[in-house]
Design brief:
Strand content of chain A: 15-25%
Oligomer: homotetramer
Largest sheet of chain A: 7 strands, parallel, barrel
Radius of gyration of chain A: 18 Å
Number of strands of chain A: 10
Order of helices and strands of chain A: EHEHEHEHHEHEEEHEHE
């Protein structure tokens, strides 16, 4: 604090989290520039092998995230590599719970071998969407996480079946918001509508700041499209400029 | 102790371990009668999903093993479901280490969710054989286990590259013996020779007792052939009759 | 023809087809006794690798079917080995059509290498059920078969979306009936009802004969449960005794 | 023909083939710019699903190749998606033959649905290398192709076990040469040596022309590295400038 600053008393900065999907390659293939994204975000949703992510990719992402202080989340998915986990599947609850537990445990063990650990769980793709409105699949996810570690938060949409299942299971639940998705009356505009996704970078950045100011604990940005890393970096800069601290929601 | 017995003072019984492969199904398929085997053995080498074993099967085997006090080992393998992990593969060391770490962590997390944990690691099929004579793959396995938990023993053949790698990594190593394989000068007779495998059940039982008497820490029995569970049970009974305690080598 | 029979002139025997699922193993695993079933049925729905069936199993089944004069059908499925194709999946139409084409072509090529060829196409499991009531998936299947060979019949339930799609595509469509499923007003009783499946072998046999007498072109029997092959053989015997010829519906 | 040229009579142009690997994506992932490569090459080695290539990618590549008159070859591989088919595997001969037959048939059926067909077979990655020096795997490949279509040529290195197996099976065999690999005494310099691969684009172009002039039937170019398509296009231009016709070796 130098004498020339407007206030002698420091104002506590408010933290906000930026999360993005990482490690979504397999074998020779890559989708995301993991290293570039890890320099921008504070929470990495790491693919666990069922929709993407082989063990070596998982290990490298964990090592790099640990070195940068980025929190690792288990991005659990349907067992559907060919469909990238984007196709709804009618998986029975006991199978889904075991599949989630397997993925979570595999990533957590790899993270621990790299000196860190999994801090939260987020569903991917079609499982994410199904868990928001299907109580059986939501409960299966919550049951798997509860069986592994009752302190691990789930990350998802507010007011969802997954939020309900987490509450019933006694699991922490953190609501995320999307920088690039249009909202109406507090809900996401369905993707089937023409203006569901913001295409103007300035709009994405402005919405991210507005979401942070309205108290969002975590803001999701995307890294798998051209220009996405640059846009995520612009969101980060705007949040810092607006006075927020960038920090993981799950310490 | 009845008066006719030779000694009034109890002789401490010596423990010996019986290990077998379990959980080697996938989806609708099964190879082994896991429940019947769990009533006979003391250590279960549980398939981790790469050569066999889906998460629900893994979870059920872990739950049942925990209930019976059977020790769980991670049976890690090449990623080769179609070949059941029986085909040698030239997997680079960093890939193999990550693959082993992933499998070990997944099973351990499932085991912990069921109130127990993985007590040891054993390679499966072609990886088992390769790890005995190939230092690079042996070191990759030892490195993966070391990164996960330096106290976890490896189970394998004595005087092997894997034993060497474990020693170099500071990992415990436990040598196993086979009840149904012929030995010559302390080494296994190669399977290419006609008398490599004992076909006479009485010979299998007798060899198991002889191995236990010679100090074998763990004896491997097989469960995936017709009559195998009955033979394993006969081995168990003979060991008990010979005065051994059946108990896991890794408590 | 003995004098006591009602007619001196031979009545032409009417043909009926028995179809069953075959080749539903993978790698080391098996579900069905393919050889025993091939001695009983006239049409084999052969798994093509997506829910079950590896290339060697496919080849062996084709060779044996060719030797016995059993017609080979391509049993196409969702890409879901872990779920055995029994889980509904929201697969886009172009992906599903390509998946069906791939499976059909692979099996037909293997069949041709063994001196025969694929005579019809039948969907498996959840794809079978979805194709009956979902026009998009039904059209994708019909489009794939049309692109491959316009003369190949589809086998399925009567009065279904798949029948409609086949008609629109100009594909032959053959309706099958189930020996072991209860019917009400000409429709299958849903599996959710308690009496949906006949458990009494005599009822299964009687229903098979009744279905044949009512003109069913193909009767489906099951081979993947204990006693199933014996039951299928009893159906065959009863149909022969009732004066039917057992022969493939697709010559 | 201008008056200053040495001959008034047109010299028949000699044909040469350019082959490259295509369709090496899976699900959401891509390695190669298939459309750009198809504008340059005359033969496309299309991945068949075992190391890369899902059915929709295969279908799109076949449709585009058919539209451009590019010949389609089946690029058969080990079943190893995670390793991209680059890891040697000890696959028994009957399994390998069935795997090759399955891949070849699947691609050929897709090609036929798009109005063309498979014109040749080339092994990929580790199977390519193994087939050059291992007679058992070479014979398995030749047996599979023979069982499918005795007129389909195999494409590979000259003086190899695969060439021997093709000759024994009565299959056509076409030797390819590499534009970017160093040769010594007519053999490829092993990749383990520092100058095994030409890094100078001019050297690659010059070697391609020299190979064509020495009578190579097909020249392999690579499309999976940055700048590869541009380099392949430069090779094409240089060959045309040198008076060669670019045309498939397998019409």
């Amino acid at each position: 604090m130098s004498p020339g600053q407007p206030s002698q008393r420091p104002v506590p900065r408010i933290g906000v989290d930026l999360n993005a999907d990482l490690g979504e390659g397999f074998g020779p293939w890559r989708l995301t520039d993991d290293e570039a994204l890890l320099a921008v975000i504070t929470s990495a949703n790491v693919a666990c092998g069922f929709h993407a992510g082989d063990p070596l990719i998982m290990r490298r992402v964990c090592a790099s995230a640990a070195a940068r202080g980025v929190a690792i989340g288990a991005q659990v998915a349907y067992r559907d590599l060919a469909g990238f986990g984007r196709r709804r599947m009618d998986v029975p609850g006991d199978v889904l719970a075991a599949d989630v537990l397997y993925q979570l445990a595999a990533l957590d063990g790899i993270a621990r071998a790299e000196g860190t650990r999994v801090r939260y769980v987020k569903a991917h793709g079609a499982l994410y969407n199904t868990a928001m409105d299907d109580p059986l699949q939501a409960e299966a996810i919550a049951a798997a996480v509860t069986a592994y570690d009752r302190a691990l938060p789930l990350l998802g949409l507010p007011d969802s079946e997954l939020a309900t299942a987490a509450a019933a299971a006694g699991l922490p639940y953190v609501a995320e918001a999307f920088a690039d998705r249009a909202y109406r009356d507090g809900r996401l505009v369905p993707r089937s509508e023409p203006d569901a996704v913001h295409r103007d970078p300035a709009a994405v950045v402005a919405q991210a700041v507005a979401l942070a100011e309205s108290g969002a604990a975590s803001i999701c940005v995307h890294g798998d499209t051209p220009g996405a890393v640059g846009l995520a970096a612009a969101v980060r800069t705007a949040l810092l400029d607006a006075g927020f601290d960038l920090e993981p929601f799950a310490p």
